[in-house]
Specification:
The chain has 506 residues and is α+β, with helices and mostly antiparallel strands. It folds into three domains: 171 residues, Adenine-n6-DNA-methyltransferase TaqI, Chain A, domain 2, CATH 3.90.220.20; 113 residues; 167 residues, DNA methylase specificity domains (Adenine-n6-DNA-methyltransferase TaqI, Chain A, domain 2), CATH 3.90.220.20. It is built from 16 helices and 21 strands. A five-stranded mixed beta sheet has the order 13-20-17-18-15, covered by helices on one side. A four-stranded antiparallel beta sheet has the order 2-10-7-8. Strand 17 and strand 18 form a beta hairpin.
Amino acid sequence: MESEATASQELPPGWAVARFDEIYDIIGGGTPSTKNKAYWEGDIPWVSSSDILGPREIVPRRFITKEAVDNSATNLVPEGSIIVVTRVGLGKVAIAPVPICFSQDSQALIPKIELIDTDYALYYLSIATQEFKQVSRGTTIEGVTKKQLASMTMPIPPLAEQRRIVAKIGLIFEYANQAEKNIILTKQKNAFFLPTILAAATTGELTCGWRRGRHLNNASNLIDRIGRERNEAWHQGSGKVSAQHYPAPQNLESDDLPLLPIEWAWASLDQLVKEGRPIVYGVIKPGPSIEGGVPIVKVNNIVDGAPINVSSLDRCSPERAGKFPRSTLSEGDLVISKDGSIGRVGLVPKELTGGNVTQHVMKVTPHSLIHGPYLMRALQSPFIQKWLRGRTKGVALQGVNVEDFRKIPIPIPPHEEQLEIARRLDALIDFSQDINSQVGRSLRRLKSTRQSVLIRAFEGKLVPQDPNDEPVSVLLDRVRAERIKGRKRSGTKGRQKQLLVAPMEA
């Protein structure tokens, strides 16, 4: 199997191409019987693919005895052997830091002669092994056979040039790794940006300068007006005498609420919804999705702070959805997850009008005096998310009950300031998302750069050739001559294992 890095290329003078089985002894692994506990009480490290954490990081978790080695398919290979995972964990490559045994999911490469710099081989394998999955012939488990590994080829420069290549790659990768650290740090800092600006927005800090010099109607007057309009609408719709008792909204729990600007006020979520559109959860057991049914919002359909993607929704039968008319959705409604992933908030777009929600999602219809996008951002704020976590109940499926949802304390600014806050937050969130996009592009470019550097290295284009370097073909011809003579290792299976590595001291 010819690697993409060696296919159809002209090599520089002094280079050669060799099959892996020409330059390495390829040794398979195995697992001693787990029924014999004594096998697993030794001091010889035995690893599986899950113990390989990086090219130079193998962390053995199990240790076996010499008897386990002698009586199983595993082999003890010397320090510096290259372990290549060819089944579960396909494509991992690492250098053995000590003499080590390994499972049947890997093969070990042991140099036949001092022809290949270990770091050079490791860099090459990091590219070549990515092709494993394309040629994998496994069924339930992807895998590459020992024969396929043996037939892989490697471009080999003179040993001195290999070391120059390794030094150049190391220098470039050092810069790339530092750049990657800086990019990831930017991503981590950006993760704190959204909660920070939401906290500033819902405490008045974001618009502190904007308020200065403006004559704003106090938010407490707005909340009183909502209450009066709801009361009047309820009486008009009830058709009963005005003495009929008006069902007041849930009271605000005012303990430990932060101070707000003088023009702002606290209100319970229940005080801010449209009359006749109560805060409710939706369809219980909506059943399987049916074509042409009523679109229904589940918890996993809510992307926090974004409009609901209607095309991703399951459809409930109209008959089933019709049994829950109070949770029917309208454009501008908010949906909030109440169970499981608690506190996700989404906005209902026009095309979702007439849809519904499940019993794990709350529907909130803001009053016309409350700007829906501001209310959505307020519900996302750190203070309210913490408040919800403090009301979580349940074990198998944690959730917040309806009455607590109705009591959520919401900081309300004057209506004009709600609009300004929503506008500023949209701009800042777009900025934050642009940063994340740039971070993603930068990380992809770094990965591509590393790949390009390696490809150029194995094409002989990364460092200049030195005509004084001894051509690799001399040593390689000797290896091939010995192979033609058919010299093989002799002795029993146990004897072969003793030849792989010197006996360990007791």
